[in-house]
UniProtKB/TrEMBL annotation:
Coiled coil: none annotated. CDD domains: PAS (cd00130). Signal peptide: none annotated. Residues 11-108 form the PAS fold-4 domain. This is PAS fold-containing protein. Pfam families: PAS_4.
Length: 114
């Protein structure tokens, strides 16, 4: 099995939306849960190859840009907030072998705290 297919299968098995975005904020990958969330639940059309900001409002866009600036300097996961579905939203950096930022992924997790 080729590595790309294997990684895709692993990401698709995660029950929470995950989408990978490059440093220009262009969506490059969405797992099945992300496709369901953005296409079926929220009604967006094809997002892969388009700006992440096409599916975020201005306030959210500002939070993401500020978080990416922190990631560039500190390299850690950033907590963005809680979604209307009570999911915790994070941005995680993706770095190459030399430690350079090549993009980030947005992920959602069920918020178990009440």
């Amino acid at each position: 099995m080729e590595k790309v297919k294997m990684m895709s299968y692993i990401l698709d098995s995660i029950p929470y939306p995950i989408l990978f975005v490059d440093c220009d904020h262009i969506i490059r990958y969405m797992n099945n849960a992300a496709k369901y969330h953005y296409y079926t639940e929220r009604g967006y059309k094809e997002l892969i190859g388009n700006s992440l900001f096409e599916c975020h409002n201005e306030e959210s866009k500002e939070k993401i840009i500020a978080a990416i600036e922190k990631i560039k300097r500190h390299g850690n996961e950033i907590f963005l907030g809680i979604s209307i579905k009570n999911q915790r939203i994070y941005l995680n950096p993706v770095r190459d072998d030399e430690g350079e930022l090549v993009g980030y992924f947005e992920r959602f997790e069920l918020n178990l705290q009440k």
